[in-house]
Amino acid sequence: MRAFREAVEAGDIDAAVALLAEDVVFSSPVVFKPYPGKAITAAILRTVTQVFEDFRYVREIGAPDGADHALVFRARVGDRELTGCDFIHLNEDGLIDDFMVMVRPLSGAHALAEAMGARFDRIVKEAEAEARSA
User: Fold this and answer.
1) What is the C-alpha to C-alpha distance for residues 98 and 125, in angstroms, rounded to an integer?
2) Are 2 and 64 in contact (CB under 8 A)?
3) Residue 128 is inside which H or E element, if any?
């Protein structure tokens, strides 16, 4: 999805968050249980932008007017290089209602899990504060 990609590439996370549906479901590459809701998804997106270094999208797959999109990216977490893909589904209003991320290799996924896990309490607090203010 071009608007999401452009927002992330510009570092405008607020614009990216504005594209999320209230009932979006985020599926992490390192946690089994999905995270439902815009507040937690927004908090995760904000945090991952601090964890990823040298983040860049390298490919976009999907018809511009379609509901399903894949954004392939490369990034680094510490000394681990990784490749990943954001699988995005849009609802009938054009908002993201399903957001699944996959990454490889396993060493990159481990580095991501460790970095995000260390920040998870802060992610939850941010999500709770955002949900209260919504």
Assistant:
1) 22
2) yes
3) helix 120-133
